Amino acid sequence: MMENSPIPIDLDHLRRSCGSCALHELCLPAGIGTDDLELLDATVHDKRALDRGKTLFRQGESFHALYVVRSGSLKSFVESAGGDLQVLGFHLPGEIVGIDGLTSDHHMCSAEALERTSICELPYAQLQHVTGAVPALHRQLMRVVSREMVAEHEHMVMMGRQQAQERLAIFLQGLAVRYARLSRDPATLTLPMSRYDIANYLGLVMETVSRLFSRMEAAGILSVNRKAVRILRPDLLAELCGQSGTPYADHAD
Amino acid sequence: MMENSPIPIDLDHLRRSCGSCALHELCLPAGIGTDDLELLDATVHDKRALDRGKTLFRQGESFHALYVVRSGSLKSFVESAGGDLQVLGFHLPGEIVGIDGLTSDHHMCSAEALERTSICELPYAQLQHVTGAVPALHRQLMRVVSREMVAEHEHMVMMGRQQAQERLAIFLQGLAVRYARLSRDPATLTLPMSRYDIANYLGLVMETVSRLFSRMEAAGILSVNRKAVRILRPDLLAELCGQSGTPYADHAD
DNA sequence: CGACTGATTGAGTTTCCTCAAGAACTGTGG
DNA sequence: CCACAGTTCTTGAGGAAACTCAATCAGTCG
């Protein structure tokens, strides 16, 4: 797969560098000058690929790095003493995970690959060093952290809905929006997570989610085939969201 | 209230300074040297008191500062187009709010005082200036942000519980833990928020919360009198949490 | 003192959960 | 390539928990 070119290291570096990454504008490099970008590049370790089901970090482990999804997807979750778990989020390319570990130097949740996933690792000690030297990077890091916090707020808004159908509709619509950000077709969703994960994320049981998919398919809103979901009627889906799907739509300037 | 002393400004400053604040160890000053503390002090604007029901900032407003609760309490919430809202959190002294505004330079939620509340305002432009000069402050800011994120994860774990009683138990226990951090009696809770706010926060309706309070009082676990709640049997309360109340109890080293 | 807001309690209904069986897809090995 | 086991998902029937509607009670504030 990886042929030996005359200057293999440079090519390798170039291909993986933050500057050439497709996620450039979503990730930490956004708004950073080329000189400073090299500093950032030096701190990014490439973690290669995680196979489906493999954990990136586990709850309780000591914290030493932040991670950015490069391709594929992750789920993050907490396990309680009783053994039951709560899915906290699904993470698509360009999204950061591991921030929760900063406050106590231990990861407070686990992160697991939902499919074959590649990751950029940002050792925190080094990252701190660079943010100290590059104020723009500090600001961008805070922006990205803030974005994750807003995503969690959206999760709560969804969990707060009484009607199960609203929750699923908001979930699907949110996913479509994130697909669009990644320049994917927002109407053609490939759900990398199981029905169990979706249900847990939404605060429901698997059977309810399954029934809702069937109901929404019968209503002509979706076409559902296991992990392949097509949004046929975005207008009707938006209606099901009960005006709560886009709580942050209005940015009054 | 504020008598004229020979050097009024110094006294005033001393009383309000981060160094003398009781929340010192919970807040941004933690682990900062005295010299750097003066730099931080200079950026902190005192917002004085907000009366009950007054908003600190409103969803959609442009972002320009972070805020720390000094005394009293806040609730943060999002309003959807339909008019219904979701309570995202209750904020006690030492806790930071406003981080969600960083990602788009607009506040993505609103914050309102639940009682007479005093606030420290940290204009973000100035704060950034200081964090650039004081690496320890940058690290501490990230820690505090991370702590807020962990708090949101706890909220989700609670919302994910099916049983309404578990949710309320986890809520009360979490509040007790935060009271303890503030050196208050963790068994004597004074709930500054309404039953409606509690219910909304838990993803329930007011009547259910009210019934649960009554049921837990009948079971001898609590004594409830409006906003005054005493935890009579912490052991039974912990039992109701269903082993999910303290998901982060184990920090395996 | 009376209107008002906030909280409690009751009765009835709906939604979603539980339990259970069956169908469809995945992957492995012959 | 097919058979088979294992997993994941779907669908059904029944019941329980929480919601809705409604009335009452208690504090609060003018």
TrEMBL record, chains A, B:
Q: Does the keyword Zinc apply?
A: no
Q: Per UniProt, which keywords does this protein have?
A: Activator, Allosteric enzyme, c-di-GMP, DNA-binding, Repressor, Transcription, Transcription regulation, Virulence
Q: Where is the Cyclic nucleotide-binding domain?
A: 38-98
Which PROSITE patterns did the record assign? Answer: CNMP_BINDING_3, HTH_CRP_2
Q: Which residues form the HTH crp-type domain?
A: 162-235
Q: Which InterPro entries match?
A: cNMP-bd_dom, cNMP-bd_dom_sf, Env_Response_Regulators, HTH_CRP, RmlC-like_jellyroll, WH-like_DNA-bd_sf, WH_DNA-bd_sf
**Domain of life assignment:** Bacteria
Predominant place of localization: cytoplasm
- What subcellular compartments does it reside in? Cytoplasm
Repressor listed as a keyword: yes
What is its quaternary makeup?
Homodimer.
Task: Kindly provide the name given to this protein in its UniProt entry.
Answer: CRP-like protein Clp
Which organism is this entry from?
Answer: Rhodanobacter ginsengisoli
Question: Lineage of the source organism?
Answer: Bacteria, Pseudomonadati, Pseudomonadota, Gammaproteobacteria, Lysobacterales
